[in-house]
Amino acid sequence: MQYEIIGGNLPAVLCRLTRGEKLICEAGGMSWMDGVFTMETSGGGIGKMFGRMFSGESMFTNTYTAQQDGEIAFASSFPGQILAINLTPGKSIIAQKKAFLACEPGVEMSVFFQKKFGKGLFGGEGFIMQKFTGSGLVFLEVDGAIKEYVLAPGEKKVMDTGHLVMMDETCKMDIERISGVKNALFGGEGLFNTVVTGPGKIVIQTMPISKAAGVIAGYIPQQSS
Fold this sequence. Notes:
Layout: E1 2-6, E2 12-17, E3 22-26, E4 32-33, E5 37-42, H1 46-54, E6 61-66, E7 70-75, E8 80-87, E9 93-95, E10 100-103, E11 107-113, H2 117-123, E12 128-134, E13 136-143, E14 146-151, E15 156-159, E16 164-168, E17 172-177, H3 181-186, E18 192-197, E19 200-205, H4 209-217
Antiparallel strand pairs: 1-2, 2-7, 3-6, 4-7, 5-6, 8-13, 9-12, 9-16, 10-13, 11-12, 14-19, 15-18, 16-19, 17-18
């Protein structure tokens, strides 16, 4: 399979498949395609279906199979970027909810639960995240632009809530309370920060959709009763 990411900050990934190749996306995730693909909808069992629902995705997935060489496209649902990650056996990544766009059949998506409830309650990335393992390409949606870091063992990166897109499974995520009452109340950064500790690669997004929605909401006229 070959792919090309187009569209700038309104991206889509164009995937060129040869006969017999397959791609998987959540139900309703396909944007356009040549007329050479067949589609099969599946749930993969009750456990997987509810796992996808809890992680913010559709309970069902669609598998598209190329009957001849052809192109299929998956577009992002929010201004940003599409991140292509080539997984290899033994490597797993953890991603934010609703990041999944499409993947090859060799990639397995499962639910990743934060070990401490407080991490999800206050961390912004969510108590339930997504874990991807296996072998093959997986495409993730990113809100805004991205910045990648490779953290050394013990190295930490502190970020405001909602900015973490993805991290290697070797990384550890914690929640850190901002010290000082004045800092917490008047610093404008909220009460908690997300702290990721290496070793491993992390990807940070510049414009979390939750923050963008909060800014836009401030400009929506309120109806008087």
